[in-house]
Amino acid sequence: MKKVLLILLVLTLGLALAAGCGGSGSKPADTSGQTQDKPQEKPKIIVGSKNFTEQLLVGYMIGALMEDAGYPVDYKLRLGGTGLVHESLVNGDINVYVEYTGTGLIAILQQEVMTDPDAVYAKVKEMYQSEFGLVWLEPWGFNNTYTITMRQDEAQELGVTKISDLKGIAENLVIGATQEFIPRSDGLAGLQEKYGFKFKSALGMDSGLMYQALQEKKVNVISGFATDGRIPAFGFINLEDDLNYFPPYYAAPVVRADLLEKDPEVANVLNKLAGKLDDTTMANLNYEVDGNKKDPEDVAKQFLKEKGLIN
Asked: Which helix (H) or strand (E) is 212 found in, with range?
């Protein structure tokens, strides 16, 4: 009897030890209450833009780069003017869009005009971070500054090659300008004060209609954009800004800091385009949409594919 009890005791101790050591006969430990390591989900990229061709193109470029890198993307393009898009970024309705350094300096930060491109970039980068929690990434290369643009034949007839040549002539000329350019401190009023003349009248209009109005001789001058492909295509010329009135307007993505905190790789993806777009390239892309009536998303993706930046 004692021998039987001894055998049962040994067997019981053996089973207990096997269970405690996680032996092959043991029940798996219950880990239902423990945190499991899961792959981090990529944050959603919500891309915004202003309401003109170039902004649509760069907006789709952001989206295509991010989608190619595996991020989910929503588009909120054609939101409106600078103020509305900026507020959408600050409020978190979007988390990235492309802005221009001069616009950030003058229209958003209300700073004095500066003409050194590096100094302007450093200023907006520092102030956007401290005031809004927004981060300027690396500029993409093109400078879409404002221009004063005329038909080449009329400019030659009047002997005008630079903006200061309009003094004594401007009072007989009508300028077409975007609704945003007319009231801006770096817009029409400041231009006229800087150069010492005043146009006969100013007509506010959509940026797309300006070029058509100039071509059809409904206006004599427009506030154009340096990278607009319609300027060379329509035989227009940009007058030299000989008093350096307009600040630099280098384009760069502006991103919410909280997005970069969640996923710093976002910056690396968008910085792939740093320095890849010059003024001529951007003008040609704009004309593909405005002149050749191609879809802006198709044009943006084709450019990125040609550069080997997306598959």
From this structure: helix 207-215
Q: Work out the burial of residue 263: count CB atoms within 10 Å of its CB; fewer than 13 is exposed, 13-18 middle, 19 or more buried.
A: middle
Mean pLDDT confidence for 106-110: 94
Q: 50 by DSSP, 3-state: which?
A: strand
What is the C-alpha to C-alpha distance for residues 221 and 208, in angstroms, rounded to an integer? Answer: 14
Question: Amino acid identity, residue 255?
Answer: V
Name which of 308, 292, 305, 257 is nearest 60 in CA terms: 305
Compute the chain's Rg from CA coordinates: 30
The whole-angstrom separation of Cα 47 and Cα 269 is 14
Contact of 186 with 248, CB cutoff 8 Å: no
Instruction: Name the pTM for this structure.
Output: 0.80
Domain covering 45-143+249-306 in this structure, CATH number: 3.40.190.10
The per-residue pLDDT for 98 is 98
Asked: is 146-238 a CATH 3.40.50.300 domain? The reply is no
